[in-house]
Hints:
The complex is a heterodimer.
Chain A: H1 14-28, H2 35-44, H3 52-71, H4 76-93, H5 99-123, H6 130-157, E1 178-184, H7 189-200, E2 209-215, H8 220-229, E3 232-234, H9 242-251, E4 258-263, E5 267-268, H10 272-276, H11 278-282, E6 286-290, E7 294-295, H12 300-305, H13 316-328, E8 339-342, H14 343-348, H15 359-369, E9 373-376, E10 382-384, H16 390-410, H17 421-433, H18 437-453, H19 462-484, H20 492-513, E11 533-534, H21 536-563, H22 568-592, E12 593-594, E13 604-613, E14 619-628, E15 631-635, E16 647-654, E17 657-669, E18 672-677, H23 682-691, H24 711-738, H25 754-764
Parallel strand pairs in A: 1-2, 1-4, 2-3, 6-9, 7-10
Antiparallel strand pairs in A: 4-8, 5-10, 6-8, 11-12, 13-14, 13-16, 14-15, 15-18, 16-17, 17-18
Helix pairs in contact in A: 3-5, 4-5, 4-19, 5-6, 5-19, 6-17, 6-18, 7-8, 7-23, 16-17, 16-20, 18-20, 18-21, 18-22, 20-22, 21-22, 22-24
Chain B: E1 2-7, H1 15-28, E2 33-37, H2 44-47, H3 58-63, E3 73-74, E4 79-82, H4 89-101, H5 105-112, E5 120-124, H6 131-139, E6 142-147, H7 151-155, H8 157-167, E7 176-181, H9 189-202, H10 215-222, H11 227-230, H12 235-255
Parallel strand pairs in B: 1-5, 1-6, 2-4, 2-5, 6-7
Antiparallel strand pairs in B: 3-4
Helix pairs in contact in B: 1-12
Amino acid sequence: MSKVQPEKNPVSSAGVQREDRRSRSREQSRYRFGKLNEYTTAMIEWYGWEHRYWRIAVMLVVLVLFVFSMSVPMSLAVQSVYAATIFAISLFLCRYTGTLFTLVMVVFSVNQSSRYLYWRMTETLVLDNWVDGTFGIILLLAEIYAWMVLLLGYVQTIWPLKRKPEPMPEDTALWPSVDIYITTYDEPLRVVRPTVLAALAIDWPRDKLNIYLLDDGRREEFREFAESVGITHLTRDNNFHAKAGNINAALTKTSGEFVAIFDCDHIPARSFLQMTMGWFLRDPKLGMIQTPHHFLSADPFERNLGTFRRVPNEGELFYGLIQDGNDLWNATFFCGSCAVTRRSILLEIGGVAVETVTEDAHTALKMHRMGYTTAYISIPQAAGLATESLSAHVGQRIRWARGMAQIFRVDNPLFGKGLSLMQRLCYSNAMLHFFYGLPRIIFLTAPLSYLFFQAHIINAEALIIAAYAIPHLAHANLTNSRMQGAHRHSFWAELYESTLAWYILRPTLVALIDPKFGKFNVTAKGGLVEKEFLDWQIGAPYLIMLALNIVGLLTGFVRLFWWNSFEAQTVILNLIWTIYNLVLLGATMAVATEAKQVRANHRVNCNQKAMLKLNDGSRVVCRASDYSEGGLGLIMPDAGMAPLHSEVRVSLFMGVREFVFPARVVFARDTVVGIEFEGLSLQQQMDLVQCTLARADAWLDWTDNRVVDRPMKGLQEILFHSMKGYGHLWHYLMKRVGSTRPQGVEDKKPERDGFYQNISKKITGKNGNPPIFSWGQK
Amino acid sequence: MTVIAVISPKGGVGKTTVAVNLASAMAENGRVVRLVDMDPQNALRLHLGGDPGDVNGLVHQTLQQSSWYYTEYDSAYGVSFIPYGKVSEVERITFEAYLAQTPNWLRDNIAELDHDPAGLTIIDTPPGPSVYVQQVLSIANLVLVVMIPDAGSYATLPAIEGLLDYYCAHRSDFYGSYYVLNQFDAEHPLNRDIKNVMQNTLGERLAPHSIHRDESLSEALAFQQPAANYAPHSQAVDDLAQLAVWLENKVARVAR
């Protein structure tokens, strides 16, 4: 650790600095040129790999070794030493960069997990009494599921492609024509408006770009707006198949060679098409190219836990790693928005799929079955709003889970023609993943079967169990932390999945049985959260599990000291498991406690050059530190430069191009100045979107200040949130018990965010002056 | 030593202000900078805290057949300057007649001064063609044309190009001529349009950063200071600093 690179972003806390250094040494370090690398390079370059028979021979030997090491029975002592040795090697390899070492770690992890599972299946199942048998088999099935998902996950993400944008030809005459579809149904105009304005600013030859507002709500207000900005308002006379039907109807009315699709609240960057279209010219079989869904606001997890932009959110694993991994196997999924499709191929597969509620994934599947390719570019080129509340979030995940289960039933990727083995595996994992509901609930309640019914679900001594299970878990965590750490911190998957498990359980199972049956939408409460509250409705199933686990914990202590003192180790093992489950359930409570959200508009941090023209004609250089609906936060070079309520002109820049906006100072404290735009013309509104949300580089530094993942750190974080969750739970329980007043009324806390709240109030409350961009609740 | 001429087709475009503040920005970057005022208005010294009552200047030194050495002043802002001098009408006419007969006058006088090899000499000129501009353009290594973003200024572009072609283009020690827009205000569509047109016409030769119209520049003059001292945070000062870096890069590229 002797060589420390100069810090790009100096950070104050020593702890963060240390972690920063760790990550550096992992990423770009001296290890690259170590002795080990020489050996491995020599190994990779071995001439034998070129010869088929050598290859088969080596693989056979490896396979035999693998099966042997997986299945050979060992005593407690031997197993412990063996597992410790393998883990030590894995820990050592983890210090080296490179996919090869990742592969070796994956092999170790798979080996240890398989060994555990083999041992479980062969030695720990007791079927001589029905209690042990039933609970034992249930748990084993859940473990087999987890093992499968672990393996498929490794396969899917073993080698992220990290595809770069392909440059467009110099001659714009060669550029194809593109239709941009912006789909809307019932969202208010203020949500759609910035998306349209940003789409108008996309860098593409004007005569080859047509923008369509696909309005399934058939609203007059939208028609007028579309007309005023010069885009086409498309409607149809029915709403069959929702968004998929909406797009398919539009396909018959437009004629661009390519179709870019945006949800109405996904604001594209001006570089969107130039970043994506190049690959279509290079690969004539490319049917669809996807970019990440980037969220500029905090999702309920991030908001309620206060981890926005610090801890990777739930979707980031998918967009940061899984899609990039899929891309290697030509299995990138279509995600319904922020993507471009080739019209000819889309039409050939019959338009966007309408059979399921996740039309997007199914559409890509159909393309793959026809032998077309899809691609992924992991550069955020559009941004939208995250789900506003936990109930809305749960509702959305239910839809995905249900849709994936439907595809699994009606067009199973494991069968049917046209797919490569790896594509089948990638799709299967995507679908299998959504069946985590039941296994997760099983894990959360499994130790109770012993604590309540004295069922020996794993029929072995506690120490042996530990000797097999700990390596399995430790390898999986270590390897996943290495592969996913940048996009999903350790142990956070447990929290995300635990929170959603109960809700996706039913829809996935029902869809499996009858894909056409049932609607499971939780009512989205949406909107502003005026005061913090615990969402009892969402939290209910977890409260029950929590109560059961607490009872189990108490029972456990009774068993430990009185009833089952003869098998203390087993009791302790189950107690530890229960405590871990209680930690997860507590964190779930923290998520279910909806943090106050007073702003209808989201403030996006930025750091860009700005200029303020003051009343006296002088112009001051300053920096914009954030923007929100119709307002800007500025950092002035000196205090007191811009008096409160004075009229100003603010300039924002794109390269050397300057855009001026009329505004008024609504806040001034020290060097921090808040301004609110006044009376922007349509052109100015477009310019404003271009200078802020639609900047090509708007989302590139999003993860700059993020802490690097370490497994134990992740566990600590979950523990911390869990404690908070129990704090909330206690608080609201007491309030429920102690007060008959409507909840929350007496719970007024001092306003922390007064300034911006003030701005947003003023803006929305202006006399008929519409906000410039409002991303209120969807 | 590099000679930069600051010229403009029309009066009132803020040429002297640009020259002085550019010099001060370059001095801030560690350059040795000397300003020479060849404009009979003799206003340059006022930007740098020069004594308004002082009549001394290069005209007097020339008419007395003395050296510029005796009329070079150090300012408090890192640049030295040689004023034109406060002269009577008779003196001016005599001086201009002398210049017309002595085409090498400026070259010789500048050569006589002490020079830092990496130093810059920035010469301010009166607007439009004149005997001063002739002499300055004949020796300038680099010319900065100050324009304002209006139609009148734009119309003079061919005339300026003609001057540059005649006096500069053929010389081997000429690095090039560049344009900068002063008093720019993006709020006015005309300003933006003119900038676009000029960008199309001049391409790389137009400085990417225009200097914004900024009251603090005029206020700075009232306080006889470069704007960077008077209003360090003003946009115009920032623009001028960018312009200084841009021009220094042009100089450095040629020097290499």
